[in-house]
Design a protein that fits this description.
One of its GO terms (molecular function) is protein serine/threonine kinase activity. The chain is an all-alpha fold and 259 residues long. Helix content is 75%, strand content 0%. The termini are far apart.
Amino acid sequence: KILPLSSVVKPLFNHVWDVLSNVPSFQSEYGIILRHLLAVRDYSFQMRKRVYCSLVMLYIEKVEASLNGKNISHFTSKEEVFRNILTLHSLLDYPPGDYPVNLREDIVKGFVKICSFIREEGKISRKLVECINTYLLNDGPNLGFQLLEIHNAMQEFLFQCWLTTHDRVLKDSLMVYARTQLNLIRGADDRQLLVEHLLDVIYKDLDQGSMSSTTMPRVDGNMDDKLGTLSSSQCGLVELAAVLFYRVVTRNSATDSWT
């Protein structure tokens, strides 16, 4: 089946880039057009790599400048920031094939700067974490030491929100981030550093869950009835804790075998 824009989508992407980079008054409308085009795989694959790289950097710079500025306290400005992050997420989610090698370092540098500006919970920070997760899942195996650069920039917000947030979507995204980084980081020292960073917050999170469970009234029935059913977030936390404890045990076992 031939899609209606197949014959013109390549110059259409060029046109979208020209408008977004040169015409401030149509940013919102053309951002919507771009997201709709990217969502169709047959269209996104036809985008020129040069145009793709330019669009990614444009939106990284937009997000960075917005978060670094003092104008996001106004409702409409926050909406504009969110739309820019939404478009950046679409670009990272639907690249025209593999990410261009020459773009990788700039994306990482952009995320490192952006992470330093994340200060509060909300849909902006939630979408930013989704952006980072999408990029790690798609290009993480190629990042090497740059994975730790992202984590070093991300960890302050991660640990600040982990135990205090009531935003379940944000908490779930942070757990996805932690599991993804654990699976990707290969260097033994870097991996151990990440495990140590995460262990403290996981212990505290499990302790919070244990304390809340002791306040539940006693009921008759078997143990499963008393414990109830774990939510998806609780399952994610238990799975992450299991991975961390396994990493600690296997590392200690390997160390003991050499002593």
